[in-house]
Amino acid sequence: MTALWTAAEAAAATDGRIAGDWSVTGISIDSRSVAAGDLFVALSAARDGHDFVADALARGAVAALVSRVPEGVDPARCLIVGDVMEGLRALGAAGRARTQARVIAVTGSVGKTTVKEMLRAALSAQGRTHAAEASFNNHWGVPITLARMPADTEFAVIEIGMNHPGEIAPLARLARPHVAVVTTVAPAHLEAFGVIEGIAHEKAAIYEGLEPGGIALAHADVGTAEILFDKARACADRLIRFGVGKGVEARLIEAQVAEAATVIRAEILGTERLVKIGAPGRHYAMNALIALTAAEAAGADATQAALALAGWTPFEGRGTRERLMLSAADDLEIELIDDAFNANPASVAASLEMLAAALPQGQGRRIAVLGDMLELGPTGPALHAAIADNPALAQIAAIHTVGPLMEHLHKALPGRVRGRHVETAEEMAAALPQKLRRGDVLLIKGSKGIKVSRVVDALRKLGQATVDQGKGPR
Known about the structure:
Layout: E1 5-6, H1 7-14, E2 17-18, E3 23-24, E4 26-28, E5 38-41, H2 53-58, E6 63-66, E7 78-80, H3 84-97, E8 102-107, H4 112-124, E9 129-131, H5 141-147, E10 155-159, H6 168-175, E11 179-182, H7 190-193, H8 196-204, E12 215-219, H9 225-235, E13 238-243, E14 250-257, E15 262-268, E16 271-277, H10 282-297, H11 302-308, E17 320-327, E18 332-339, H12 345-357, E19 366-371, H13 380-385, E20 398-402, H14 406-412, E21 418-422, H15 425-431, E22 441-445, H16 453-469
Parallel strand pairs: 4-5, 5-6, 6-7, 8-10, 8-11, 9-10, 11-12, 12-13, 13-14, 18-22, 19-20, 19-22, 20-21
Antiparallel strand pairs: 1-3, 2-7, 14-15, 15-16, 17-18
Helix pairs in contact: 3-5, 4-10, 4-11, 8-9, 15-16
């Protein structure tokens, strides 16, 4: 495997000290998942990463980025810097500087990870493509993504997130994108920003990182669009507006949602296109419009990009759909929509719309388990209760709720759709199977912190146990 960094290159990039000659093929910050050939970065968060250097090296890491040599560790396997986080940031900056890749940076209140993954799919067939893993989008996720980027990369997709003011601009300047995207602005992280205009200003800061001649993509349908436009015009050489209204450069004309796909008709930069996405959901249509527009803006072939999206499917926790046999004896098979990774009012509305469009089997029903939407500040209770007014509820049989904030929705729901309310995901995991019947379509959605993913895990384990029991003797 080609070396990602030699010891000399890494030392030069970080202004660090080395006592050995080594090369690495990857970078890790978690000793538990380190791969053979990695450079282990000893970051300090809840615990000091230096405490895990020896374990990481024993598991196959070649060397470690440290600010001191831990006891018992060979100095020849260390890259010593003044500060580990600054060292990682410098390595990321060097990774970005040495490549000729066309770089796309993506942020937004909703859809940034999905757009990033769509771009990965759309660009991979056209050149060596590098994109952030999982949701590596914060102060360490962006540098590690850049540091992991091979020098011969042709397209790169960098996801940039935020929780507090002032986070996006430094990360955007580190990424130095040629194309910068704000997918949308919606109530999320209101606890830190107070008003949605504050969120819009922070999201628009991604444009500050644009390279000369850079292109800004901005959502024209949001109430804070002018904030995005003003910032884009100040920072970018070109502004591309997208949305459903007329007069934009990339317009979603129509979206038809089927059981296993979504077909969209759109006009993108003067050309009308018919595109099929390998997943059902109206919100995926807008995400695909954004991804295709960004790909074309970055110089990719738009037709090839559109064809590649036909094979795209959501990944775990972001709207994946699967069938689970929960009880062979009762023929209890359901369809699970796993959207348990993140939640805010806009993404919950999109998920409920997706559930409303799903087709239960036989006498099955559409059921949702909704966990708290976190970081909404003082408006949180009202925003939770407002979900009761979503028109998609007309097609949903029951909504079960998890968490203290979702109790406000529970109380606001009409009686016919009001399900069970519990405080924890563990309680819901224990109670839910008894409330399901054959043919149900079940959506599970919530912020990561409320841990409704544990409900998903419990159902999968129940399904696997049923499958294992049905195998018979060996």
